Structure formats: structure tokens, C-alpha cells
């Protein structure tokens, strides 16, 4: 009742009462917030979102103030704890020193990572011979799951070429789906949207979609309300038997295809050309285009899964890549775009056609959005569909070997199983990020463990694309890697708990059972197969084919990114001719790397 009237004053008074010195404050405050589990992490996320918009959020400070006031009250009303508390503050004020066990763990961790790096060094033996004009080009997201499908497609169709690029395809879009006014960002969380789009169809279609959505939301709120939920189970439970049976037998109608996305404000001809050229340059696709170029975003078809966004595209902010792929395909097929590209040093062949698609990483099915393909490309498209179907079978068979109880024939059914706790492995196993021309990794079995970004530094004047790669995709990949790492090595602190007993709280996260703290990270079933870890917890090894001087210049301009490497969160290697040549050391130092 007598607490100060602001969070800042409460923190200052409680710190003074508790004897928390400036030296102790950092780790003491961190420990108090970590006691709150995911709630403190969600508060930090709210602050992050506000900072991106140039604003701020005080939720985290408010939580810290509450924790300190509780500790202050405990010390005031239970003075017997004063001596123990003083010792705790003294420990927090002391420099953090690793214990002998921590040193041993660090040595073993480094040894495990070097073993994996030696394996990569043996596999990356140099680029394959250059080919002529490919019969097909397929651009996939850099996601590790794409590596399996890309390899399968290239083995099925040796005349095809695959490309890796961040799944938002260089379009920082805020998108409004049909039937709603809510806007979702389809871009890495590091960026702010620069473009706006929507998928609105006819007035009748929009009206029907909005009515359906409102009815669904109202029904959901009624079922989950504190009072009506119990009566609902008693009265309507038996009626859900048919719905459960349909879900179990995978019955039901196919959803109607959403209207094609389009930019909310049409771009002028100059902007179209500049945007298209920027994306093609970032993809190292200034020349050598095939007749048919696929732009394949990805998403995951899962059922009854609160962590659905974790299976979608990280570069799209947890959305699928469909919107980004379709917008870019339309942009690059636009006559105004193509007419303006030569001014940017790019000339597309007259017969090159871009087709958007979506790779379902759970079933390995590829959906192509190709209703307006010219007649002379129909045979190319038919052949492409055959190659994709054959590659999907190969990819499913490979993935089934890792999934408990799965076969190549049953993998796809896991997407519709509402009781399936492991519809797919997601990005479990991710351990490397490789930015290099595709010939450096083509034909190499990387086991679905590497993010693959196509990059040719010799086409990158000024190294602007290299800077984008190091400051955006590498950072996003590091977050994904560390999320899996933390969920595997410290599941009680950084994991999402047991998926079997999850309850969704407030639409922001999950708790286990009917109480407890908000759980961050990934569920146990996402990193463990029931008998052993399915994710090998290694720090990400970033391998880039580019001059070391250029990478040093970029790291010097971005101290936050440099800190990831200098402080040992990530490894960095320079490739030369498709082979590992140098290892980065703290302080912008490079040392030669040998096979030994």
C-alpha cells in the first residue's frame, strides 16, 4: 500500500532497502526476472516491438518493480533472511567466474563443434563444373528443410538449378489477408515493412469471409469462456464426436484458394524495376535465367499445434512464404518491370517466366500458382510438376528415416493428425549457414542441417549484398539455432515443456497443465524423439565465400553482429573456391584453416 507511485521509484527504493549495489544490480535483476520465466521474456518482446516502431514499452520495468517490491516486503517482514540475502547480494556483486565443470563443458562443446566442422570440410571439396542454361531454376528459402528437397530435385533433374534466398524474397511486406482488417508482417523481425499488400477478392467473397471469421471467433470465445466452457463440454461434447472422427479419418473439403495478393498501392514503373533489380541482385541472379523460374516460399501444414508459426518461415516472421513468392513472381513478370531492368544492368530473356509456389515442409508437396502461364510454357510446367513429384517422394523417404514411426508413404498423413506431436522435425539439427554459389554445395549431402544462401561475391559490387546477408539472414539463423540449442540443453529454462499438456494462454504462449509460468522456446517433442535428443546442440557455423577484408569491414560497422562472433555465440569461416580456408578469431583476426 505504501509502495512508490512509479515503477522507477519502486525499483530505486527497493534496491536501497535490499542493499543491491550497482555492481550487483545487473545479475540480481536478471535473476529476479528469470524467475518469472516466459512472462519476462514476453515483456522484453513487447519492448522490442515498440523499439522497432521508435517507441518504448514499460512492461518489463513494471515486472521488475513488482519482483523487487516482493523481495523488499519479505526482508521487512522476515528479518531472519537478512544475512542470507546479504550473502546473495555479495555473490551478485562479484565478477562472474566459470566453475571447473563449466570449463570442461566448454571444452567438450568446442570439440563437438570442431568435429562437425571437420565433417563439413571433408564434404566441401570444391565446386562442380559449370553448366549451360538450366532447364529449370527453383529458388527456395534458405531454411534447412529446403536443403533436402533441393538435393532431391537436382538428383531427379540434373539439368535443373536450385537457389537459396531468405523466404521473404527481399520484399518487406505488411500484408492484410482476405476477410479481415488485421495486418501481418511477412519479413524478418529485424526489419520494418516498406511495402503493403492485401489479398482481397470480390465484395461478395470478402463479406462471406468476414461473416465466417466473426462467427468462428464468437464461437471460440464462448467455448473458452470461464463460465460457459463447463456447460459447453457437458451439452455439446457428444456432438463433437463426428468432428473428431472426421479429423481422425482426414475427411473434409479442401479449402478455397485465397485471392492472389497484390500491392495495396500500385508501384510506378521505376519502383517496379528498382525493386525487381534489387531482389535479383541479392539472389545473385543477374544472368543465366532459365525459361521457367520457380519462386518457392514454404510453410507447414500442421493440425492442433500452438507452435505452428515455429514450423513456418522465420524470414517471414512466422508466416508462410506464399504471399512474398506470389508478389515477387507477379512483379518480375510485369512488362513495366522487365522494361526497366536493363537500366539496372539486368536483362531477362524474353522466354523467362516466373512462377510462385509453396513448399509444404510437412508433406513435401509443392503447390504452384500458375493459372496465367503462357501457352508455350505449358510443356515446361508439366515436366516441372513431374520432377517436383518425384523429388517429393525422395525427400519424404529421407525425412521418414528420422521421424519416429514414419515411412515415406505415411509422412504426409502426419500433417492432418490432430494427435501428432511430431508432424515434422522443423529445423532440428540445424548446425551450419553457408553463403556461396550453389556449385560449392551441389551434390553434397548436408543432411538437412544447413541453411543454404546463394551468393557470388564477384557479382556483388560494393558488397552490399554481403552486408545484407551478414546482418539479416545470419542473425535470424542464429536466433533459430540458439532457440533449438537452449530448448535442448536447458529445457526447464528455455524450453517449451511437454506438448501433451499445453494450454494456450491469452494467444501469446503456453503453460503446462492448468498453471505455472509461461513457457518460452520449443516443446520437448520438437528436439527429442522420446529416447534421445533429435537436435544436436551445436553453435551455428557460418561459412561465407567472400574476401575476409570485406567481412571485416562489415563487422566493424555492425558491432552488435560482430559481438555474436567475438563472444563465441557463432563460428565464422571464409570459403575459397568452395573450400573452408580461414577461421575467424575475436578482434577481426583470421587464421588459416587446414584439414588436420
- Report the oligomer: single chain
Shape: globular
Spans of at least 5 consecutive residues whose pLDDT stays below 50 are: none
Cα-atom radius of gyration: 26 Å
Span from first to last CA? 67 Å
Task: Characterise the protein shown here.
The chain is α/β, with parallel strands linked by helices and 596 residues long. The chain has four domains: 7-93, no CATH class; 100-127 and 429-596, no CATH class; 136-199 and 258-416, no CATH class; 203-249, no CATH class. Helix content is 43%, strand content 14%. The chain contains 20 helices and 17 strands. The protein has helices at residues 7-18, 22-34, 38-52, 59-77, 82-93, 100-123, 144-156, 203-224, 228-236, 241-249, 269-282, 308-311, 322-333, 335-340, 378-400, 464-471, 473-489, 491-494, 548-557, 559-566; strands at residues 136-141, 160-165, 173-176, 184-186, 195-198, 262-263, 292-299, 353-360, 366-369, 432-436, 450-454, 502-505, 509-512, 541-544, 571-576, 579-585, 589-592. It has a six-stranded mixed β-sheet with strand order 11-10-14-15-16-17. It has a five-stranded mixed β-sheet with strand order 2-1-7-8-9, sandwiched between helices. It has a four-stranded mixed β-sheet with strand order 4-3-5-6, covered by helices on one side. Strand 16 (579-585) and strand 17 (589-592) form a beta hairpin. The longest helix is centred in the N-terminal third of the chain and has 24 residues, at 100-123. The chain starts with 6 loop residues before the first helix and ends with a strand. 36% of the residues are buried.
Amino acid at each position: 500500500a505504501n509502495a512508490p507511485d512509479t515503477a522507477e521509484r519502486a525499483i530505486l527504493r527497493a534496491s536501497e532497502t535490499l542493499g543491491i549495489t550497482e555492481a550487483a544490480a545487473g545479475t540480481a535483476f536478471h535473476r529476479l526476472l528469470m524467475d518469472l520465466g516466459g512472462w519476462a521474456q514476453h515483456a522484453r518482446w513487447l519492448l522490442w516491438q515498440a523499439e522497432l516502431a521508435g517507441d518504448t514499452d514499460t512492461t518489463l520495468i513494471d515486472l521488475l518493480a513488482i519482483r523487487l517490491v516482493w523481495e523488499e516486503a519479505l526482508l521487512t517482514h522476515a528479518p531472519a533472511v537478512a544475512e542470507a540475502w546479504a550473502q546473495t547480494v555479495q555473490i551478485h556483486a562479484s565478477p562472474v567466474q566459470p566453475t571447473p565443470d563449466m570449463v570442461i563443458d566448454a571444452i567438450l562443446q568446442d570439440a563437438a563443434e570442431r568435429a562437425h566442422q571437420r565433417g563439413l570440410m571433408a564434404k566441401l571439396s570444391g565446386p562442380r563444373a559449370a553448366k549451360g542454361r538450366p532447364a529449370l531454376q527453383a529458388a527456395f528459402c534458405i531454411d534447412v528443410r529446403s536443403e533436402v528437397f533441393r538435393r532431391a530435385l537436382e538428383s531427379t533433374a540434373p539439368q535443373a538449378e536450385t537457389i537459396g534466398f531468405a523466404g521473404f524474397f527481399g520484399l518487406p511486406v505488411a500484408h492484410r489477408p482476405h476477410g479481415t482488417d488485421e495486418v501481418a508482417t511477412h519479413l524478418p523481425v529485424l526489419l520494418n515493412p516498406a511495402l503493403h499488400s492485401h489479398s482481397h477478392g470480390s465484395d461478395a467473397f470478402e463479406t462471406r469471409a468476414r461473416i465466417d471469421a466473426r462467427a468462428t471467433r464468437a464461437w471460440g470465445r464462448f467455448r473458452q469462456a470461464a463460465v460457459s466452457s463447463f456447460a459447453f463440454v457437458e451439452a455439446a461434447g457428444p456432438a463433437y464426436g463426428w468432428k473428431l472422427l472426421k479429423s481422425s479419418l482426414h475427411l473434409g473439403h479442401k479449402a478455397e484458394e485465397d485471392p492472389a495478393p497484390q500491392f495495396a498501392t500500385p508501384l510506378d514503373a521505376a519502383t517496379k524495376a528498382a525493386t525487381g533489380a534489387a531482389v535479383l541482385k541479392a539472389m545473385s541472379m543477374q544472368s543465366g535465367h532459365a525459361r521457367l523460374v520457380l519462386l518457392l516460399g514454404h510453410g507447414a501444414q500442421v493440425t492442433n499445434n500452438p507452435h505452428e508459426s515455429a514450423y513456418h518461415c522465420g524470414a517471414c516472421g512466422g508466416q508462410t512464404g506464399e504471399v512474398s513468392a506470389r508478389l515477387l513472381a507477379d512483379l518480375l513478370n510485369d512488362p513495366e518491370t522487365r522494361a526497366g531492368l536493363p537500366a539496372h544492368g539486368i536483362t531477362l530473356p524474353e522466354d523467362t517466366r516466373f512462377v510462385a509456389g509453396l513448399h509444404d515442409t510437412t508433406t513435401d508437396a509443392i503447390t504452384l500458382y500458375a493459372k496465367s502461364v503462357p501457352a508455350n510454357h505449358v510443356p515446361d510446367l508439366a515436366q516441372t510438376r513431374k520432377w517436383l513429384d518425384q523429388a517429393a517422394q525422395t525427400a519424404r523417404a529421407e525425412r521418414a528415416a528420422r521421424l519416429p514411426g514414419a515411412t515415406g508413404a505415411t509422412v504426409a498423413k502426419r500433417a492432418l493428425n490432430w494427435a501428432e506431436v511430431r508432424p515434422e522435425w522443423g529445423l532440428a539439427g540445424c548446425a551450419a549457414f553457408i553463403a556461396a554459389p550453389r556449385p560449392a554445395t551441389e551434390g553434397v549431402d548436408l543432411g538437412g542441417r544447413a541453411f543454404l544462401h546463394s551468393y557470388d561475391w564477384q557479382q556483388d559490387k560494393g558488397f552490399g549484398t554481403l552486408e545484407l546477408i551478414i546482418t539479416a539472414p545470419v542473425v535470424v539463423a542464429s536466433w533459430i539455432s540458439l532457440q533449438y540449442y537452449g530448448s535442448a540443453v536447458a529445457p526447464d529454462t528455455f524450453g517449451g515443456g511437454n506438448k501433451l499438456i499445453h494450454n494456450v494462454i491469452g494467444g501469446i504462449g503456453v503453460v503446462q497443465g492448468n498453471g505455472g509460468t509461461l513457457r518460452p522456446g520449443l516443446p520437448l517433442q520438437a528436439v527429442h524423439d522420446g529416447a534421445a535428443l533429435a537436435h544436436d546442440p551445436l553453435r551455428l557455423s557460418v561459412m561465407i565465400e567472400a574476401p575476409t577484408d570485406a567481412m571485416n569491414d562489415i563487422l566493424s560497422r555492425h558491432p552488435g553482429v560482430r559481438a555474436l562472433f567475438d563472444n563465441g555465440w557463432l563460428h565464422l569461416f571464409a570459403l575459397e573456391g568452395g573450400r573452408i580456408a580461414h577461421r575467424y578469431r575475436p578482434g577481426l583476426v583470421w587464421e588459416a584453416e587446414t584439414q588436420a
